[in-house]
Predict the structure.
Amino acid sequence: MKVELIAYTPSASGVCCDAAAVCTASENGYRSLQHSLASGHESVLEHAVFTFRVEGISRVTLAQLTRHRLASFSVQSQRYVKLENPELVIPDSIRNSTFAAEAESTMHYVMNLYQRMVKAGIPAEDARYVTPQATTTNLIMTMNARELRHFFSLRCCNRAQWEIRKLADEMLKICKREAPILFDSAGPGCVTANCPESRPCSHPRSKTDWEA
C-alpha cells in the first residue's frame, strides 16, 4: 500500500481559522477555531480539502472506503484497464494459517483464468467477474477536513478492519504533519474522548501512533 498527499488547500489551517473568526466576529481566528472544535461546530473545517493518491489496496477495502459518501473518488477501471500482473492482498491470518497454500493457489488460478478469458476475446469488463476481492486497485480521493476527522474517528479504531485502518493511519500521519492545528485532536474515541464502542478493545490507541 502506498499513500501520498498530492494536493491540499493552501494554508488550510489559516482558511479554517478565518472561517471560524467570521462566524464569531472575532479577531483571533486560532482561538475561534479551537472554540468551534471544542463545541462540536466543525462546519468551518469544510473549507479545507485534501487529495490523496492511494495505490495497492484491495477491492475489499475499496468497498469500505466508498461508503464514506462526503468524498470524491476516481478509481482505476477494471472495464478499460486489463489486469496484467495484479498484486493480491492476503491477510496475515490467512498467510500464517494452514490454508495459506490453498488460498494463494486458488487466487492465482482464478487470476490465470481471467487472463486466459481476456486473451480468448471475452471483454475485460465481463472477465473481471471471476477475480477475487484480494485484487488490488489504485485511486485518487478527496475529502474535506471535517470528513477526514470523521473518517479517522471510525477507521483508526482498533475495531476497524486491519487494511482500512492501515490506510487511515497513514493518512492521519500525513494530515497531522501538514495541518497539525486541524488534526491534532483527530483519531478514534479512545484518543479524542471516551470510546463509543459497546465493547471497547483492551488496547486503546495513543496520539503517538500517528507521529511521522
About this structure: DSSP finds ten helices and four strands in the chain. The chain has a mean pLDDT of 94. The longest helix spans residues 100-119. The first strand starts at residue 2 and ends at 8.
